[in-house]
Amino acid sequence: MRQALSLGRRGLGRVWPNPNVGCVIVRNGRVIGRGWTADGGRPHAETRALDGIDARGATAYVTLEPCAHHGRTPPCAEALIAAGVARVVIATGDPDPRVAGRGIAMLGAAGIEVTRGVCEAEARHDLQGFLLRVTEARPFVTLKLAASFDGRIATATGESQWITGPSARRAVHAMRARHDAVLVGAGTVRADDPSLTVRDLGIDRQPVRIVASGRLNIDGSALVRSIPQAPLWLCHGPDAPAHDWVATGATIIPCEMQGRQVDPVDMMAKLAGRGLTRIFCEGGGTLAASLLNAGLVDELVGFTAGVLVGAEGTPSLGALGVERLSEAPRFQLAEVTPVGGDILHRWRRLPA
């Protein structure tokens, strides 16, 4: 199963709106087939693992319950039955109403032994974006903050390039590639004119770039120039001049407003409705604070540099309105790793 989980991770950021599933087929202690969900979501992992092999009497290890519904392709449960496998080991069930136990029931009705719950915690973490989209109608959100030792992202004059080193920046590009989309606020676009693409890693499938801008008062030259490489989606308020952006090839997504900002809850619901399962937010501070206040951040990734900017520098977060420590968002430490001359620390949402 751990090999199937490793295979499934190859689909992170590449298979939405489908889940990133891995499958390994074993007979007599020997791996005879393996597969993972293909780019764009099809073919599914089980179909790829079964391709070209004789799986009669074999055991299939699958990270998610095999699908049971007819869509653009036949159900994977039917494919496993037709292949004659004797046993299917499943990491976790699929909450999609079209599946939700039906895949397991189909396999059992065909006389196939089914074992469920092997490496379930790991599988649910890997599949969290898909699971959240199905159960809560929102994507998994990673918030990345790269800052000085004292939590600043720029000096008082606005200079920010570069607080962290090249190894940290390369790691950020790898993280972008493992998400369906990269999200920033309007202030980041105005200050940095970023392209938000994945570069220098040989990546052939770019994430969607998303800008949250209530009034669309941005230029975004680098974003517009790179639309042929990677999609650009603009989340904006109802009164923004969205028609000015249609000719650029950007996708326009009207959202509700929360004061002067795009409502983060409505924005995430709209993005999930378009199929996104994993979003990598790179700020700025106001957008990051709104996501935290709305309880929408599932993973917090920090890159901390050994440089001190001082109180006059720009803080990495906007106002959270915290008056008591009991009200402050808290996360559980998952990893601390040196990256070049900087420190990477990863935190996960505390269990409910």
Automatic annotation (TrEMBL):
It comes from the Bacteria. Zn(2+) binds at H44, C67, C76. Binds 1 zinc ion. Residues 1-115 form the CMP/dCMP-type deaminase domain. Signal peptide: none annotated. InterPro entries: CMP_dCMP_dom, Cytidine_deaminase-like, DHFR-like_dom_sf, Eubact_RibD, RibD_C, RibDG_C, Riboflavin_Biosynth_HTPR. Pfam families: dCMP_cyt_deam_1 (PF00383), RibD_C (PF01872). PANTHER family: 2,5-DIAMINO-6-RIBOSYLAMINO-4(3H)-PYRIMIDINONE 5'-PHOSPHATE REDUCTASE (PTHR38011:SF7), DIHYDROFOLATE REDUCTASE FAMILY PROTEIN (AFU_ORTHOLOGUE AFUA_8G06820) (PTHR38011). This is Riboflavin biosynthesis protein RibD. It comes from Thalassorhabdomicrobium marinisediminis. The gene is ribD.
